[in-house]
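Following the same procedure, sequence and fold were stored together, as reproduced here:

>
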Amino acid sequence: MKYREVTFIYQPLKPWSEILVAFLSELDFETFEEIKQGLRAYIKEDNFNFSKINSICKQLKCKIDIKHKVIIQENWNEKWESDFQPIVIGNKCGIRADFHEPLNVKYEIVINPKMSFGTGHHATTCGMIDAMLYMDFKEKKVLDMGCGTGVLAILANQLGSKKIDAIDIDDWAYNNALENIRMNSSSNIVVHKGGKEKIEGDYDIILANINRNILIQDMYEYSCNLHQNGLVLFSGFYEQDLYLIKQEANRQRLKYISHNTKNNWVTVKFKKI
């Protein structure tokens, strides 16, 4: 499978990064990476439509230069190996590749991300991990929805969960999660390829780092498959969209508990009442 890397160069970064991500999310872009010059985004080659992207950029009151190129899987592996650096979150959880030296942390995760989302560097993954480190996962049944690399599921396993279902609709993410789970000897995780139809109920904790629209669209299923007093962590949206998430959560009997913010990206915790 081929992906298209699209680089958007503009200044200032705020508020244009937030606005651009909101628009591009509607065009099936899967991953966003904030860079010093602007934004880098990735989309499957079959979904790439330059005229639609260019049209969005022209609507914004900001000069945006667009560069794009095709990335095949082999080139992507070379790219991430040259760019990927180990990261430590909350002084407890470290994420590295298998060619890095071991990290002196309580929870260490080794991944090979390929084209899948979830290295710990993005604010949403970092926010989810930081929140997870303060939660009780012992003997809990967990759902990691939109699992990407499987990094959240792997951490849930290390935190003591008894069973974890990890679901992603993307082929590469599914295969990558399987590979990373094997690499971390995470025997309590089952990976499923698909969407919300793969959710198999009665979870104690649900993790969903996706995007605003999908979270709102699928929140009914999350609530229906969550135990009474069960917890949900949502991320993948900006702070200005938190009220929309709260509104839908309230409709689905999910009570707001707390949230953290990193670079305007939100991770929010709810409890089923």
Summary: Helices lie at 16-24, 50-59, 73-83, 123-132, 151-158, 171-183, 212-224, 242-251. The first strand starts at residue 3 and ends at 9.
